[in-house]
């Protein structure tokens, strides 16, 4: 056996669903299942957000937790999350102190996180670390 999956089309969604179910005391889906965030956010804390393509699990969503990420977005296999997913994570995780986006040096991630920053900067204070 080379792969353990139902179908290629549903693999990412099913993988993330399984992660959230297995760790539901710590994480929840954001609106529209565009991101995963900490179940309990800390008011007044700068939200730390990251993300990237699926295929590296538990990368990104596995780092959500106290003292670590507040939210993460998962794109398709080896594909950056969309700006819409990232904006959703910003909106879900920002408790009023702004957001720090941690972006790896992959061109697609840099481009999409920068686009999301432009889209959300009118409503949120955002800084990016590359």
Features:
single chain; 130 residues; alpha/beta; 6-stranded mixed sheet; 3 helices; 28% helix; globular
Helix and strand layout, with pairings?
Layout: H1 11-22, E1 27-29, E2 36-38, E3 47-54, E4 71-77, H2 83-93, E5 99-102, H3 107-120, E6 126-129
Parallel strand pairs: 3-4, 3-5, 5-6
Antiparallel strand pairs: 1-2, 2-4
How would you portray this structure in words?
There is one protein chain. With 130 residues, the protein is of the alpha/beta class. The mean pLDDT is 95. The protein has 3 helices and 6 strands. It has helices spanning 11-22, 83-93, 107-120; strands at residues 27-29, 36-38, 47-54, 71-77, 99-102, 126-129. Helix content is 28%, strand content 22%. It has a 6-stranded mixed beta sheet with strand order 1-2-4-3-5-6.
Query: What radius of gyration results from the CA coordinates?
Result: 14 Å
Please provide the count of β strands: 6
Order of helices and strands: HEEEEHEHE
Proportion in β-strands: 15-25%
Q: What's the main sheet like?
A: 6 strands, mixed
Overall, the morphology is globular
